[in-house]
Amino acid sequence: MKKIDISTYINKIKLTSCIMNASGALCTTDKELSDLLNSSSGAIVTKSCTKKPRKGNIKPRYFEWNIGSINSMGLPNLGIDFYLNFFQNKKIKKPIFLSISGLSIEENFFLIKKANFSKKITAIELNLSCPNIKEEILGNNLYKISDFLESIFKFNKKPLGIKLPPFFKEKHIKNISLILNKFPIIFVTCINSLPNGIFIDINKENTVIKPKNGFGGIGGLIIKPFALSNIRKFYTFLRKDISIIGCGGISSGKDIFEHILCGASAVQIGTQFIKEGISVFDRLKKEFIIFLQKKNYSSINNFKGKLKNFQ
Ligand SMILES: Cc1cc2nc3c(=O)[nH]c(=O)nc-3n(C[C@H](O)[C@H](O)[C@H](O)COP(=O)(O)O)c2cc1C
Q1: Whole-structure pTM value
Q2: Predicted confidence band of residue 135 (pLDDT cuts 50, 70, 90)
Q3: What is the rounded distance in angstroms from the CA atom of residue 211 to the CA atom of residue 74?
Q4: 263 falls in which pLDDT band (50, 70, 90)?
């Protein structure tokens, strides 16, 4: 049987498997990160961190059902020092993406500067799209984003990518791409949770999470079409050396195929990882390889970005 290669590059960073966790999915604590280090994921993304540890929002703040999840976590994390120290003395065989999510522009500068000093951090995933904090989402403010990136690249030497909120109009994706294309960004991760849905417990006639009167970011299977459309449009408008990491609604090998067909170079697993635990990476890898065998593809480059229009 033909050997199937699911390795990939995010710009110049090599991943032996194109499947990794999404930030916020079981990647906050020592135990969770240790499990990820020992797993078959192609890379590790940390929980988005802030300068100081944060407890996050009041519980219950996460709920899942058969085709989706809703959360309003409020960035609970152990603070950047914990994440930098965790990797410091570890033997690491895969790329480490430090996700950062400062609550202000100044805090982001501080976090990026700090990450620049750590040899163990391969790249920074700058989260400009957390829907569950009261501060403004920078990913939606094109003027601020441009100035912000200009300042960052005056001092930043680490490979850096951006995690974006979902966009719903072509002109928004085009406009943000025009800005991103001006900077030495190496990847874009799309999409973050789809902001502000409500899920209802019909017996109790109430919301299922407590913060923000039950409004929260939506993940899981039901957001896949929005993830795919964002990947597809960014693939059209971004510079070709900016890799796309697809995230949103992946729970099978077929879903991974769809993300890559739209233009993703790698994929992240959020809700399904939380539901299934660490074995999700072995299962998805197997399913994806079997899927490619059936399609007679030997590597992801055979079909990456090659989605055809209806004919
Ligand atoms: C419980 C939970 C916590 C999350 N925390 C973060 C986070 O800290 N940083 C971030 O960039 N995205 C965070 N996300 C968003 C996910 O990384 C991902 O973009 C989103 O869930 C869509 O992927 P999915 O459909 O596979 O869940 C979180 C999602 C969930 C469900």
Answers
A1: 0.98
A2: low
A3: 9
A4: very high
Closest Cα to atom 3 of ligand 1: 24
Domain, as residue range, for 209: 8-302
pLDDT band at 139 (very low <50, low <70, confident <90, very high): low
Evaluate whether residue 149 is within a structural domain: yes
Number of domains in the chain: 1
Question: Ligand 1 pocket by C-beta < 6 Å: which residues?
Answer: 22-25, 47-48, 62, 69, 71, 73, 75, 99, 127, 130, 163, 192-193, 219-220, 223, 247-250, 269-272
User: If you average pLDDT over residues 149-178, what whole number do you get?
Assistant: 96
Domain contains 105? yes
- Examine the residue annotation and report whether 129 is marked as an active-site residue of this protein: yes
Check if 49 is active-site: no
What CATH number has the domain bearing residue 191?
3.20.20.70
